[in-house]
User: What shape does this take?
Amino acid sequence: MTDAYERMMRANQSNWDARTPVHLASRFYGIDGEPDPSRWFASWEWDDLREVAGRDVLHLQCHLGTETIAFAERGARTVGLDFSAASVTAATGIAARAGFDVTYVQANVYDAVEALGGRRFDVVYTGKGALCYLPDLDRWAGVVAELLRPGGRLYVVEFHPLLNSLGPKPAPEEGPELLLRHDYVGGSGPVHRDATHTYTDGPAVEGATDSYEWTHGLGEVVNALIGAGLNIRRLRESPELPWPRWPHMVRGSSGWWRLPEPRIPLLYGLLASR
Assistant: This one.
């Protein structure tokens, strides 16, 4: 990884340290109440993951651990990893208050093998806004392959590249039309953001407001995993999100939100095995 990319990732780390108190104070994450990890998962995720009780599960780029504790709730031996010290501290406290046994480790995802002492896992889970902060997916896929036991499974649930190409959110003066703002495929370098507010309803970010994101098309993700020796077992595309990104979205029977039209993929789920 180049010096420029390392500098950008350090900026992202500082930005997520600064975001953490903002997210803890937001209604979006609902940290002040009883944690409800199930709200962040589609039913098809558990269909693909199957039984996790008694398994060793690692959640990469876990932030506050709102999804991580779902695995502990289902009986897995659960570890969460994130590069933000503030996030790891917050996640540890959230899990302890909720009575869940989760181990959290602070490390850059590229350093996960060393940070976890060479430990291997039955399931590695990642997603919903994680891969866009990684400049090198080939290196990421190699790390994942080292973290998995033979027969172990990776499950990626991510915002669809089409959703990412529409931008983080519509401007207040815009109508319901969907406008492409960013590339669908990668290769043109990072998108630089300097934002005082995040995707949540929390207060303004103080201090480190710069962040960098990289575009990764579905083909890039799939080919990186194949290149690392993993077998692609399933790929799903879903038209639903766990919150209403656009005001005209409608709530479905699942409790998640979809566009009335056009029907486009907003999330994808990718299952791979070692």
